[in-house]
Amino acid sequence: MPSRLANANPLRFFSSFREERDTFGPIQVPSDKLWGAQTQRSLQNFKIGGEHERMPEPIVRASNMEYGLDPSIRKAIMQTTQEVAEGKLNDHFFLVIWQTGSGTQSNMNANELQWKSIYDLYRS
């Protein structure tokens, strides 16, 4: 049975936006979310699924850590990774499973929000 939210605009719940850019140009992204332009385009271009069809938490929480990084960057990565593992950033994984096909959109969602969180932590 299809979700009754399948054709709903997921952005209707947000009131404040910031501008992000990619090779397609500028796009408005909810200001309180960590994702970037690619995730936003995916949300707008694939208006299918609903809240209960988002990426499963075990997939969202899977992560890998590289060594040899600047300690302050490593600390920001570790903090963000811990927040993902604890489910504190679940509201930033907004895509539904039907958008993942080859995994491009879900990978971009994870990359964008983790990069933004790491960048914000690193700057502070």
UniProtKB/TrEMBL annotation:
GO biological process, one term: fumarate metabolic process
Source superkingdom: Eukaryota
Annotated GO CC locations: mitochondrion
MF GO annotations: fumarate hydratase activity
InterPro entries: Fum_hydII, Fumarase/histidase_N, Fumarate_lyase_N, L-Aspartase-like
Fumarate lyase N-terminal domain boundaries: 25-113
Pfam family, one: Lyase_1
PANTHER family: ASPARTATEAMMONIA/ARGININOSUCCINATE/ADENYLOSUCCINATE LYASE, FUMARATE HYDRATASE, MITOCHONDRIAL
Protein name per its UniProtKB record: Fumarate lyase N-terminal domain-containing protein
